[in-house]
Amino acid sequence: MSHEFDLANTPKVFCKIFFINRVFSRTICGFFTGMSYRIMNNHCPLCDSEDAPEYFSDSSRIYFNCRTCGLIFVPSRYFPSRAEEKARYDLHQNSLDNAGYRAYLERLFVPMNGMLSPRSRGLDFGCGPGRPGLSLLFEQAGHVMAVYDPYYAPDEDALTRKYDFISATEVVEHLHEPGRTLDMLWRLLLPGGTLGIMTQMFPGVKEQFAKWHYRSDFTHVCFFARTTFEWLARKWGIESVFIGNEVIIMRNNGGQA
After folding, report:
1. What SS3 class is residue 129?
2. Which domains are assigned to the chain?
3. What is the pLDDT of residue 111?
4. What pLDDT shows up at residue 257?
5. CA dihedral 163, 166, 172, 174 (to 10 degrees)
6. Which three-class secondary structure state does DSSP give residue 128?
7. Are 42 and 50 in contact (CB under 8 A)?
8. What is the pTM of this model?
């Protein structure tokens, strides 16, 4: 439940503290940094449902589970700062010369590439530091790629063009506003376009979630299940293809965000 404050009937000292905190919260906005100003912010950041009771908690964070779309998420007070987030991402040193890393990216690249027409135009969203490996694979296959990352490739112009396909590898679990960001990506797709996502879908049993290594990364703030992507597909009026427990491919056949 969201609680609204009547500042007119609230002591001035509290009002001042509330205002300062509110202003501070507004400084950490963006695709990966969220703009939630709620005090009790258990509104689902994907579907905005208020039906999201506490699911699990430990010494570090509290997790809510949306009963509408199935997303598990942490409140915005647990979001890392931009500096903390970037310091974590700077540790990622990946290269296609690493056979294991290349094989990992191919879990999305191979099935997605098989759905594309020659010389399709693509966007690698959240490409990360260094030479983006997935975009390079698509370029080697003859496609024309753009990249975007709020820290390493902050080309806002890339978010104004239309694409035949968009890839987001290990991105959605970091989104502070997944509903807004995914709707934005969907609108960037041309008719017949394809959105490919890689993320680990969470176990459906609470005991497994408690032991799940994926939630231990403090930059992971929302966790999708198969039912979450199925909800998203219904919202957009499309069908989704699941490959294993990590790859989700969605095609824009006329559905609208």
Report:
1. coil
2. 87-251 (3.40.50.150)
3. 97
4. 55
5. -80
6. coil
7. yes
8. 0.83
When mean pLDDT is compared across 205-209, 219-223, 227-231, the lowest value belongs to 205-209
| Cβ neighbourhood burial of 60 (10 Å; 0-12, 13-18, 19+) | exposed
If you search the block for the tokens 């975007």, which residue do you land on? 148
Residue 254 has which token pair? 């006329």
Q: Over 60: is that where the pLDDT of 12 sits?
A: no
- SS3 state at 56: strand
* Residue 65, beta-bridge partner list: 72
DSSP 84: H
**CA-CA-CA-CA torsion sign (97, 101, 106, 109):** negative
Rounded distance between C-alpha atoms, residue 44 and residue 51, angstroms: 8
Please write the tens of the pLDDT for every residue from 130-150. 777 999 999 999 999 999 999
Give the residue-averaged pLDDT of 183-202. 97
* The pLDDT of residue 1: 42
Cross-strand pairs, 149: 153
Amino acid symbol at 255 = G
Q: How many residues does the chain have?
A: 257
Nearest to 134 by CA among 157, 112, 153: 112
Residues paired with 153 in a beta bridge: 149
Give the CA-trace dihedral at 177, 62, 25, 184, to 10 degrees: 0
Q: How far is CA 130 from CA 96, 135, 151, 172, 178, in A?
A: 11, 12, 11, 20, 25
Write down the residue that tokens 């290594």 correspond to.
213
The distance from CA 151 to its chain's CA centroid, rounded to whole angstroms, is 15
Instruction: Give the per-residue pLDDT at 202.
Output: 92
Q: Which amino acid is at 29?
A: C
Residue in 120, 96, 78 with CA at minimum distance from that of residue 220: 78
